[in-house]
Fold this sequence. Notes:
single chain; about 210 residues; 4-stranded antiparallel beta sheet; 8 strands; globular
Amino acid sequence: MEVNYQxxxxxxxxxxxxxxxxxxxxxxxAYRVNxxxxxxxxxxxxxxxxxxxxxxxxxxxxxxxxMPLTIGPSAVVPLGTWPAATSTSASDPDYEVIGPQVFxxxxxxxxxxxxxxxxxxxxxxxxxxxxVDIAAIDPKSKVLLNDAQAALLAGQLSDYTLNNLAPGQxxxxxxxxxxxxxxLPRPALAGVRxxxxxxxxxxxxx
Length: 206
């Protein structure tokens, strides 16, 4: 079964701050499809906007003054600085639903060479942006599927691979898989829509 990707990064945007003082302009941002079958947000796309603090008076929450900090596990922080940002199921109050009908999330890296890559380059300066693919189902069609069937459908939609690293190729592959599906109700499958979009990263200003 294929697994939804997730994306987490630092950004100069507002977030939910744990306290009113020592706010920084930096937030931890994460996107995921929730995989916790006991959660009401199961199979829904969520976004985290965790406002970070400047203050170094206390070790938690991790302050910006100690940057750079790895988001996920590292040799220094085995569990990761923010474990919920690299988990598809861990709960965190700063997650909120932004795509209740989006049940599949994939992306690949757009390199400055113009090529697409499944893995990031060794230097972030080699990343020009991201190509994001999502699958959404309209509310009327979604009620025809239970949670297990929705998860099954998500698992039948393939990841980016070396065979579909071309603009629009994954979207075509996903549509073919939906058209060829014979295990789920056709009225529900007819309500699935696929979207692909490029998000470009602006180069740093001198």
